[in-house]
């Protein structure tokens, strides 16, 4: 990977805000002509600085009114059990993020649901039945203050 210069960081910052920005507009924003801008963008993609492009969907429009954070605990810390848990959660769309964490819990999950009834059913029928899970503590989001707005650039 090459060292990021100011122009590379400007390109990354701009596409984090709008991944569909046309090259012409991106080039203008970062002070380059289109061809060098396109070459830099391709290099940033090929060097792994850009994982991909996607749309940010509206939870409100999709009627996903509940955002919950669940701390999941295991009583037995077995590698194969953790691997099975991690494989299974990959296939559960309601779990929008999962982090293996330090502290009193083993994993922190972010989960979305239509309402509290649906979340309760998900907890009972899915989350608590996953391999290794012995305890789950839920925290419900009352209001989102800041949404994933991209990574800070050095």
Question: What key phrases describe this protein's structure?
Answer:
about 150 residues; alpha+beta; Arc Repressor Mutant, subunit A; Alpha-Beta Plaits; 2 domains; 4-stranded antiparallel β-sheet; about 20% strand
Give the distance, in angstroms, between the N- and C-terminal Cα atoms. 15 Å
Q: How does CATH name the architecture of the largest domain?
A: 2-Layer Sandwich
Shape, please?
Answer: elongated
Strand order in the largest sheet: 2-3-1-4
Number of helices: 5
CATH class division of the largest domain: Alpha Beta
GO molecular function, one term: sequence-specific DNA binding
Protein name: AsnC family transcriptional regulator
Pfam families: AsnC_trans_reg, HTH_24
Domain HTH asnC-type: 4-67
Concise account of the structure shown:
The chain is an alpha+beta fold and 154 residues long. Helices cover 36% and strands 19% of the residues. The protein contains five helices and four strands.
